[in-house]
Amino acid sequence: MRCVSVGQEGLDFHPYxxxxxxxxxxxxxxxxxQREGRIHRYKxxxxxxxLALKYGLGEIASADGDPxxxxxxxxxxxxxxxxxxxxxxxxxxxxxxxxxxRYVPNLPLSRDSERLVVLRRSLAVYRMVFGQSRQEDxxxxxxxxxxxxxxxxxxxxxxxxxxxx
Length: 165
Fold this sequence. Notes:
Elements: E1 2-3, E2 19-22, H1 29-36, H2 45-60, H3 67-78, H4 86-89, E3 101-103, H5 112-130, H6 136-145, H7 148-158
Parallel strand pairs: 1-2, 2-3
Helix pairs in contact: 1-5, 2-3, 5-6
């Protein structure tokens, strides 16, 4: 999905897209999250690709109805016991599997490379405050500034658990 401010609200690209190209950067983390929210949604493309990669046709061979329902049921059945419904409906990470991808063309002499660093830092803090499920940006932010053990302790202390029961 290619995105400018016009594409940051009201459009659903998650059924068929898991990568976003920001042709320009928004001025704040909320708008960046809005844009990326077009592809990171419930039963999104990356999640479905990973379920299909893991289970393949074997899981849906006996399914009479929607094959995706069979794959999501298998993902729910086989997820770690302590997991919530974030897995498999919002996240289903696999080694070498699909994931949400963010691209920002870095044009020569552009200020966007500097702005992206600042925006990613503020996005990580924004997600931490709202307990978002994608924490890799937050982790990178903390690890750049703190030793690993200290960053893990800070994350445990500040985490807000918004997972469904």
